[in-house]
Amino acid sequence: MVAESDLLRTMPEQYATSANATLPNRVSPVPFALPPLDVYLYWHETAEFDPANRWLRETLLALFS
Questions:
Q1: I want to staple 20 with a disulfide (CB 3.0 to 4.6 A). Which of 4, 25, 44, 45 is the partner?
Q2: Contact criterion met (CB below 8 Å) for 60 and 54
Q3: Beta-carbon contacts of residue 30 (< 8 Å; ≥ 6 apart)
Q4: How far is Cα 40 from Cα 45, in angstroms, rounded to an integer?
Protein backbone atom coordinates (compact mmCIF):
# COMPACT_ATOMS: atom_id res chain seq x y z
CA MET A 1 0.00 0.00 0.00
CA VAL A 2 2.82 2.42 0.84
CA ALA A 3 4.56 1.83 -2.50
CA GLU A 4 1.39 2.84 -4.36
CA SER A 5 0.57 5.94 -2.31
CA ASP A 6 2.02 8.98 -0.57
CA LEU A 7 1.82 7.23 2.83
CA LEU A 8 4.66 6.90 5.31
CA ARG A 9 5.28 3.85 7.46
CA THR A 10 7.53 3.53 10.51
CA MET A 11 8.94 0.18 11.61
CA PRO A 12 12.19 -1.30 12.90
CA GLU A 13 15.02 -0.93 10.40
CA GLN A 14 15.76 -4.66 10.06
CA TYR A 15 12.13 -5.42 9.29
CA ALA A 16 11.82 -2.46 6.92
CA THR A 17 14.89 -3.52 4.97
CA SER A 18 13.65 -7.10 4.68
CA ALA A 19 10.03 -6.20 3.91
CA ASN A 20 11.05 -3.70 1.22
CA ALA A 21 13.65 -5.85 -0.51
CA THR A 22 11.42 -6.24 -3.57
CA LEU A 23 9.56 -2.93 -3.32
CA PRO A 24 10.50 0.54 -4.56
CA ASN A 25 10.11 2.09 -1.09
CA ARG A 26 12.98 4.07 0.39
CA VAL A 27 14.14 3.10 3.91
CA SER A 28 15.40 6.11 5.88
CA PRO A 29 16.36 6.53 9.53
CA VAL A 30 14.12 8.56 11.81
CA PRO A 31 15.73 12.03 12.05
CA PHE A 32 15.39 12.28 15.84
CA ALA A 33 16.10 10.17 18.92
CA LEU A 34 13.42 7.72 19.97
CA PRO A 35 12.85 6.57 23.54
CA PRO A 36 13.45 2.89 24.32
CA LEU A 37 10.55 0.59 23.58
CA ASP A 38 9.31 -1.74 26.30
CA VAL A 39 8.03 -5.10 25.08
CA TYR A 40 5.76 -7.30 27.17
CA LEU A 41 4.58 -10.87 26.68
CA TYR A 42 1.15 -11.94 27.90
CA TRP A 43 -0.39 -15.38 27.76
CA HIS A 44 -3.30 -17.20 29.34
CA GLU A 45 -2.50 -19.38 32.33
CA THR A 46 -3.69 -22.47 30.41
CA ALA A 47 -0.81 -21.93 27.95
CA GLU A 48 1.83 -21.75 30.68
CA PHE A 49 3.12 -25.30 30.09
CA ASP A 50 2.16 -25.72 26.42
CA PRO A 51 5.38 -26.69 24.59
CA ALA A 52 4.65 -24.62 21.48
CA ASN A 53 3.70 -21.55 23.52
CA ARG A 54 6.76 -21.94 25.72
CA TRP A 55 9.02 -22.25 22.65
CA LEU A 56 7.52 -19.07 21.18
CA ARG A 57 7.99 -17.12 24.43
CA GLU A 58 11.59 -18.30 24.82
CA THR A 59 12.36 -17.48 21.18
CA LEU A 60 10.92 -13.97 21.51
CA LEU A 61 12.78 -13.38 24.76
CA ALA A 62 16.05 -14.43 23.12
CA LEU A 63 15.43 -12.09 20.17
CA PHE A 64 14.66 -9.08 22.38
CA SER A 65 17.37 -9.68 24.98
A1: 25
A2: no
A3: 10
A4: 16
CA distances from 20 to 7, 23, 25 (A): 14, 5, 6
Express each pLDDT in 1-56 by its tens digit: 888 899 888 888 888 999 888 988 889 998 999 898 888 899 999 999 999 999 99
Residue count of the chain, please give it: 65
Amino acid at position 26, single letter: R
Say if residue 53 is exposed, middle or buried (CB neighbours under 10 Å; 0-12, 13-18, 19+). middle
Domain segments of the chain as ranges: 1-32, 35-65
